[in-house]
Amino acid sequence: MDELSNKVVPQEVKGWNWGAFMYNIMWGIGNKTYLPLLCLIPLFNLVWIFICGFKGNEWAWQKGDYKDVETFLAVQKTWSRAGLVQFIVAIIFIVLYFLFIAAALATFVNNYPGY
């Protein structure tokens, strides 16, 4: 193990990170932690993205060279804000997609002479 992985993680650093969850691979490369690259494995990534969200801050703290917790939290807040916005946008698009499909199916069923 290298010396960075032995760094003690302060309690303030622990917690959910939307950036690590939504942008897992880019976030991992940007924070010099490469465990999020496991998200490239199909099906396994469905579980691993949640692990990235939960453990991301700890991994980034251990691999980073931040001078204090406040600086670290400021950097991660930017990632987290972007990830949360991306999550909300994705949910909106998924809902709109299903509404569109439901409307298209309803139109098809109502206009099909066999029904």
Polypeptide structure, described:
It comes from Enterococcus alishanensis. The chain crosses the membrane at residues 34-54, 87-109. Keywords: Membrane, Transmembrane, Transmembrane helix. This is Ribonuclease G. This protein is mostly helical. It has four helices and no strands. It has helices at 18-22, 24-30, 45-63, 69-111. 21% of the residues are buried. The model has no long low-confidence stretch (mean pLDDT 92).
> What integer value in Å does the Rg equal?
20 Å
| Class from helix and strand fractions | mainly alpha
Q: Give the terminus-to-terminus CA distance.
A: 67 Å
β-strand percent reads under 5%
Low-confidence runs (pLDDT<50, min 5 residues)? none
Major sheet: size, sense and barrel closure?
A: none
Mean pLDDT: 92
Number of strands: 0
Helix content: 55-70%
- SSE run: HHHH
How many helices does DSSP assign? 4
**How does the overall form come out from the CA principal axes?**
elongated
